[in-house]
Fold this sequence. Notes:
By secondary structure, the chain is of the alpha+beta class. Helices cover about 25% and strands about 15% of the residues. The protein has a domain at about 15-60.
Amino acid sequence: MVINPNVLPSELKVTLLVETLPSGKVAASIFEFPSCRVEAETRETALSQIRAIFLERLQHIEAISWIVPVPASKPPWMKFAGVFKDDPDFQEIMEVIRAERTSDDDSEVDPSYYL
C-alpha cells in the first residue's frame, strides 16, 4: 500500500483481522500494519479499539515512495554464451540433436510405458 502524503485519499481501505484467542479474548489487527494490534474481552471492544488506535496512528504516519536504482547485471548464464562458437564439432552436434527432436520415428519409444 502506498500513501502519497501530497495527495491524501478521502478513504483508505485496510483489512481488519479478528482472532479468538485460546484464553477467550479477541485479538484485532490490521493486515497492512501488523504492529497495530489490540486484545480485548469482546469482539466489539476489540474492533472499536483497533479502529480508534489506527485513526490516531494515521495522524503521525507518513509513507514515502522510494525508487531504488538497481544496477544492471548480466544473467549468470551469460558467461557461457558463445563458448562453442569456434568449435568445429558443435554445428554437427546441433544438427543431430535437431534431427532427433523433429523426427517422427517412434522406434525408440516403448508404447507400454505410456499405457
